[in-house]
Amino acid sequence: MSDAETLFERIIAREIPAEIVHETDNTVAFRDINPQARTHVLVVPKKRYRNVAELAAADPALLGEVIGTAAKVAELEGISQSGYRVVFNTELDAGQTVFHVHAHVLGGEQLGFFGRVS
């Protein structure tokens, strides 16, 4: 992994503004600047791991906290009962563009199917 600071690290450090939805000691959740659903919030661990596989291998408890934060975000956003999706994109072919693991919390409307781009 490159030593270059990621966009998310700069948001965590409050060097770049973001609309923070929820924060714990180890995670921060903020609105995506290019939302793909009515509700689209990113949940990022404050400690940088490249992707979800790296995080799961290195710190399963932190991965659990990321998922717990995603559930809390769904509750705070009022979508926990109607349904929501939690997505981790891993590597370029899956659409990962920032190489600091993050969960997308999507909901607030009927979501389509996912998979191959048509």
UniProtKB/TrEMBL annotation:
Gene3D superfamilies, alphabetized: HIT-like (3.30.428.10)
InterPro entries (UniProt xref): Histidine_triad_HIT, HIT-like, HIT-like_sf
Motif position, Histidine triad motif: 100-104
Ranges for domain HIT: 7-118
Family annotation (CDD domains): PKCI_related
PROSITE patterns tied to this protein: HIT_2 (PS51084)
Name of protein: Histidine triad nucleotide-binding protein
Native species: Amycolatopsis minnesotensis
